[in-house]
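Researcher: We are triaging several targets before committing to wet-lab work. For this one, the compound of interest is zinc ion. I'm pasting the protein sequence and the ligand SMILES. What I need is the predicted three-dimensional arrangement of the protein with the ligand bound, expressed as structure tokens, so it can go straight into our comparison scripts without reformatting.
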Amino acid sequence: MFQAKCTPKVELRKKGIFDDFIYSNMNGRIDLHTHSLLSDGELLPSEIARRACVLGHEAVAITDHIDASNINTIEYLIDAVSDVNENWDIQVIPGAEITHAPIEIIDKLAVKARRLGAEIIVVHGETIVEPVIKGTNRAALESSEVDILAHPGLIGYDEAEMARDNDIALEITARSGHCLANGHVASVAMETKTSLVINTDTHHPTDLISYEMAYQVGLGAGIPEKELKKILEDNPRSILERNGIKI
Ligand SMILES: [Zn+2]
Ligand SMILES: [Zn+2]
């Protein structure tokens, strides 16, 4: 069957950022946190997929904000994602981001989202730029259904250790505002040996970023270069693999 090809990484190379060794070992970009117009994003799921494809992504998760009012939109997302996955050379993963929910029901929503077909579960963490209720980070880290705690703000060492022990990744984000705590998140995660991922939290057409830009966001957060391949490739891949998603 004809499969529309994504832009090969060689066309995306920006001189000066990577040496030849890093470049020749580099794989595609994986972003596990984006929003479509099923919540407050501007793009249809198909346009997120198309733009991700053009930017050299191997995989992109669409993780619209949910609470009990709109959790059933996951079924529409799954229809759109199936159309793309059958026809284009990119893996689009249906997911959900539990957002500003009472902390008492975070696990219940995660279980329900999973049952409806969400394959990646993100929780909207305690970013310093929104009044996210205190205790959200901890409730997310106690749920066995959660894959990623997004923009966890001024997360404590004890919580980072919970993330490590429960196999939940903490997020370094390219999103303005939320990114103000990236340096703190990176340093706590590195000291506690907790997994990190670098996502965009895309809402607008130009929010998706290339592998190169994600690499620079990581450097900007204070992550050493030798850790970045693992954070950009191995960590998101292992989240996908344990959810049965092959890329
Ligand atoms: Zn949003
Ligand atoms: Zn988000």
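Researcher: Any quick observations?
Model: The pocket of zinc ion (ligand 1) is lined by residues 35, 40, 65, 203 (CB under 6 Å).
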